[in-house]
Backbone:
């Protein structure tokens, strides 16, 4: 059923309603908890206020979509009662407080998106080993403390993990090698420190690995990613890492790269492994102490696709040739 405007308190009388799609304003009435047959709740517009605890009575619901509204307050602990819930998207609101640990015990939950809120505190450490979670997106919040080891080792179905733009601290624990289906990891823009765990490079189906803007240290041997044949996006910028590059005569390339950010990584030269990267869209090698002229092959990089190129704050002596006509940012 599709409504417009606000939701009256009388909506709770629709006890056999299964799908509720509303575009409007106002707050969710407490009577929403009386819709015991509801399976889908989809709100658009400018809803505000808090989510009533009575939402925990919707025991048949599978899909809740409350994205890009003006909701505030804490997430009700009663969300953990929704045993049939498979998708929960609350991104783009102003929710505050901590993540309810009860959510991570729901075994049928596949998609969680709480990005772009004001959530604080730690990520819950209790995770059900029978979880079906495939995608977890918590970026652009105020989450603190360490990334729980259970998040990296227990979730058997996890494919997408985005914890970027928080205030997470501590070391990154080892990723369990059985999680070979994990395809995208973004932990950028936090306060993580220590070395990059080698177990990351056993995740052979990774297409994206973004660790930029943390406080990680040590020497990173770029050859460690040589087994990641599906890798498209790599971000290691703005940290205390030094990259160890392969010698120019080695067979080592990533022809499928679309995004590469290695700013402030002490490269000292243009990496030769870029030579066959014909599909690059974004390349940042700024502040990397690169010296001398650009190699002739450089202007063949992403010739038909490159839109962002940053070579600033280096020691380049020649900038001849410029056929990259699709560039929008240089």
Residues:
């Amino acid at each position: 059923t599709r409504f417009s405007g606000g939701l009256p308190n009388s909506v709770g009388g629709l006890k056999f309603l299964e799908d509720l799609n509303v575009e409007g304003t106002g707050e969710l009435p407490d009577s929403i908890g009386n819709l015991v047959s509801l399976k889908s709740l989809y709100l658009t517009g400018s809803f505000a206020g808090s989510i009533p605890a009575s939402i925990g009575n919707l025991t048949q619901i599978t899909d809740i979509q409350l994205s890009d509204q003006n909701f505030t307050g804490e997430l009700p602990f009663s969300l953990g009662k929704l045993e049939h819930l498979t998708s929960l998207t609350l991104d783009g609101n102003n929710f505050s407080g901590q993540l309810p640990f009860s959510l991570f015990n729901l075994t049928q939950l596949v998609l969680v998106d709480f990005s772009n809120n004001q959530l604080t505190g730690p990520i819950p450490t209790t995770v059900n080993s029978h979880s079906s979670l495939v995608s977890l997106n918590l970026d652009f919040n105020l989450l603190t403390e360490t990334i729980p080891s259970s998040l990296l080792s227990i979730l058997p179905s996890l494919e997408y993990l985005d914890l970027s733009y928080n205030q997470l601290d501590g070391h990154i624990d080892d990723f369990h090698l059985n999680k070979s289906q994990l395809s995208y990891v973004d932990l950028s823009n936090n306060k993580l420190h220590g070395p990059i765990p080698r177990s990351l490079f056993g995740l052979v189906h990774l297409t994206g690995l973004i660790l930029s803007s943390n406080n990680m240290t040590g020497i990173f041997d770029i050859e460690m990613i040589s087994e990641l044949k599906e890798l498209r996006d790599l971000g290691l910028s703005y940290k205390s890492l030094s990259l160890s590059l392969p010698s120019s005569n080695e067979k080592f390339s990533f022809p499928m790269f679309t995004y590469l950010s290695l700013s402030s990584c002490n490269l000292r030269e243009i990496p030769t492994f870029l030579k066959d990267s014909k599909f690059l869209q974004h390349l940042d090698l700024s502040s990397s102490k690169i010296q001398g002229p650009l190699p002739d092959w450089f202007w063949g990089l992403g010739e038909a696709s490159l839109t962002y190129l940053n070579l600033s704050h280096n020691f380049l002596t020649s900038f001849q040739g410029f056929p990259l006509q699709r560039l929008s940012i240089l």
Summary: The mean pLDDT is 88. The radius of gyration is 23 Å.
